[in-house]
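pasting for the record
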Amino acid sequence: MIIRIRTKLIFSISTLILLILSVSAFLLTNEKRLELSSDMYLKNLAFSKLIAESVAENYDNFLKENNFIYFNREVKNIFSQNPDLTKITLITYSGEILYDSSQDIEKKYEGNVRILSDAALLNSVRSKKPSFLSGQNYYFLGEDENGNMTYYDFEDNLLDGPRSGFFASNFVIPVFDKYGVVFEYDYSKLQDRIAQLIERIAILTAFGVLLGILLSVVLAWHFNRPVRKLLNATENISKGDYDSRVDIKTRDELSLLGMAFNKMARDLKASLDARVYKERLGRELELAGQIQNQLVPKKVPEIPGLDISAALLPAEEIGGDMYDFLPTEDENHIFYLGDVTGHGIPAGLLSSISSALFFGFAKITDLKDILIRVNEVFHAKTMSNMFMTLCLVTYNDILNKLTYVSAGHEQIVHFDKSSGTAILKPAGGVALGMTRDISKLLKEVTFQMNSGDFAVIYSDGIPECWNDKRQLYGMQRLVNLVQSNGALGSSKEMQDAILRDVKIFANGYKQMDDITIIVLRKT
């Protein structure tokens, strides 16, 4: 079950106000009760001391002379002066009750001598000291040397005095060294005053609770409105509306929350757009990679007297390297290995276009003419900063001769079985697309392939391979490796040896460029 913020606020604030007012009421009532009881004690003590002699004098002047009417008139006047006074008793030190206002109402008492039966009260009268009864104990009053009130027991032992907020039910005031006047007081009016105070506090508490409810409703509206906006915007986003925004102008944390939500919505939209783009790009790269893989020969051709092995290891999904074996109708077999600058999609597009161009010019027997035609298309249709190095090769299976034209490509490594040495064949030419006319820069190179000889054609991903020490693989290491493995019996074994050595050299460092290799071995 969901509890609304408004309900929570109303309950919480109302409960808090009720608790605060209740505690305040308790403390205030208790404090007021203590204050009133103390005031009444001092007032009644002062009143008792002030009236005691008057009571004794009126007794001697009127009641003792059997003039009850005048005496009773004076007593009634005393009662009218203090509404808390309930009884006045005049007692001799011997314990005889001379007057009792609760009994001697209509006339003077004329029966048997009345003797005070309350021993504690009689002792208080006989002490000839002012005293009062609080609870079950009598406290006798005195003053210290500084004029401060002191309290004693029957044996004149100094007491701490009654507890705070006590009630003095009666006061005993000695008079004329022969009487004790006892004044009894009723504190019901004090309780009435406290009840009235509690009633006013209850009204104030009810008003406070109502005010708290009203404040809670206002605060709930203040919080609920922006929260509702956030909730609606969140629901919109969950339904795919990433343009949903909130406008909260409360100038508090809710406003900051609204700004944070809007930023989250913008970031989420941008993240989703980036994710969609990334997924689409990933699918497109995957498709492009599949298309490019289709351009790579599935198997090498069978050329009489020649063992061929080839491999292409792209650095990314789409590579800029390429190789292919072109279809021919005579003893001259044409194949090539090319490297477009960079790698990735742009290089992959150019390598795919180049593959189509070379395939279209396959019937031309002149290698230089093929490169001139491809260069014309490259120079006219590609960007000025995109080039391609390439080694175009033809092998004559009758003459056992390998002829190549280099367009700025890496030098072929030729292993001569008869001498047991590996050498770099001459380079030459210029990268395709770099200049419009390359006819005068191209040069054909021919060399004999004898039994056991190797020819290694490769892209710059091999000599320019980096290791974790920031070192290049280099041409010399490649030449030495080919020479040391010249006794191998197949082109595949030589290819694997080269690629394995490059991997060992890289030592796990990321491949930065495409690696392509074609290995030829004369059988």
